[in-house]
């Protein structure tokens, strides 16, 4: 697919039009061999909450209210996930996620802490997560109740309570 920049907006052209040329005035009405209907304008929204420096402690991250995290318009339709009250913008990472995009897309604007820690380690968070942080929040809920974890016949963490 060819890419063409027009007036600081991005236009995508179908692959049949990648060899077209642009006239000096750069207006979309003067592109040789391209019908104006074939141009699709994508006006990317600026990041309202850009990723923060990786060395910034979690406690110093900007606070973003739960209502902003939940509202797609407020977060500019970015793929935000909440893990332990830290917001991660995974929009650009989702295509690289080894587990695929389905899991991540199902938690957009939601807390996924216990699910994340079942499959990832502190090292994963350090290597991949630190650069995705945009802020911290409070009050964003996980849509799923965490099931009890068992070791043998006893609940993990409750081994001294006896048999359940």
TrEMBL record:
Alphabetized SMART domains for the sequence: Cyt-b5
Keyword Heme part of the UniProt annotation: yes
Keywords attached to this entry: Heme, Iron, Metal-binding
GO molecular function, one term: heme binding
Any matching Pfam family: Cyt-b5
GO cellular component labels: membrane
Domain of life: Eukaryota
Residues of the Cytochrome b5 heme-binding domain: 61-138
Family named by the database record: Belongs to the cytochrome b5 family.
PANTHER family for the chain: CYTOCHROME B5, CYTOCHROME B5 TYPE B
Name this protein carries in UniProt: Cytochrome b5 heme-binding domain-containing protein
Source organism (scientific name): Aureobasidium uvarum
């Amino acid at each position: 697919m060819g890419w063409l920049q027009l007036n600081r907006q991005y236009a995508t052209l179908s692959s049949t039009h990648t060899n077209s040329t642009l006239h000096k005035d750069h207006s979309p009405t003067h592109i040789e061999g391209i019908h104006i209907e074939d141009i699709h304008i994508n006006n990317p929204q600026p990041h309202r909450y850009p990723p923060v420096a990786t060395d910034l402690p979690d406690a110093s991250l900007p606070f973003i209210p739960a209502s902003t995290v939940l509202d797609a318009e407020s977060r500019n339709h970015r793929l935000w996930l909440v893990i332990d009250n830290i917001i991660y913008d995974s929009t650009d990472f989702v295509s690289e996620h080894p587990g695929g995009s389905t899991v991540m897309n199902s938690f957009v604007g939601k807390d996924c802490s216990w699910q994340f820690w079942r499959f990832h380690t502190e090292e994963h968070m350090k290597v991949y997560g630190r650069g995705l942080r945009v802020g911290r929040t409070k009050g964003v809920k996980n849509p799923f109740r965490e099931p009890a974890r068992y070791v043998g016949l006893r609940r993990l963490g409750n081994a001294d309570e006896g048999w359940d």
